[in-house]
Design goal:
The protein is of the alpha/beta class. The chain is built from six helices and six strands; from the N terminus they run αβααβββββααα. Strand 2 and strand 3 form a beta hairpin.
Amino acid sequence: MKISDILSTDVIAVNLDTADKEDAIKKVIDLAAKSGKILDVEKVSKTIFEREKLVSTGVGKGFAIPHGKTDAIQDVVAAFAITKEPIDFDSIDGEPVRYIFLLIGKENLLNTHIKLLSRISRLMNKDEFREKLLDAANAEEVLTIFKEEEKNYFDI
């Protein structure tokens, strides 16, 4: 499964205005709900916040990947946002976050969930890729950047 298969312009936000980490996660979950694949937003939210309590998903380089697994979805759900301003996310490197990629997998699709997390992390670890995303003016440009980068990087 490709990242671009689980993203659409409906679930991408550029210049997301957020107050803090909790607000950012709530807004990205609301964004993901636009996919129409979430059966129970409250349950999804609880899953994501419980996972976040274990250890911050602020993985460094201005990037966070809040994620979790639940059967309160029809299929894999994702959302991506670039925040208007950097926010404190309790990241492992102490740096604020601008890029938030939410991934929600089904309980019985652990392998798919792990592969997607790995693929997202590898892309987001690339400085050049993150710079391209920051320059994107809208959701369409963000989606195009993901598609092009996946094609070039993963040879698919």
